[in-house]
């Protein structure tokens, strides 16, 4: 009985974070919620007894992609001129 409750909670949290990513007006918040979604997805894979896929999801889906998206948000906020020293 408790495993069904845990699985239902994970599904609900996955849906809530997915909607939060799509509805967010802040890029930074959307990326952070995307990382949280990836970690919850890794937990879902563990619950489905697929630890290899869970590890890949945590490392690539949440970790690497999250870091790359955070770097892209930082570059986007900085603007194209500031990175090249102000000359265009």
UniProtKB/TrEMBL annotation:
Residues 13-78 form the MrpA C-terminal/MbhD domain. It is a multi-pass membrane protein. The chain crosses the membrane at residues 6-23, 30-48, 54-74. It is found in: Cell membrane. Keywords: Cell membrane, Membrane, Transmembrane, Transmembrane helix. This is MrpA C-terminal/MbhD domain-containing protein.
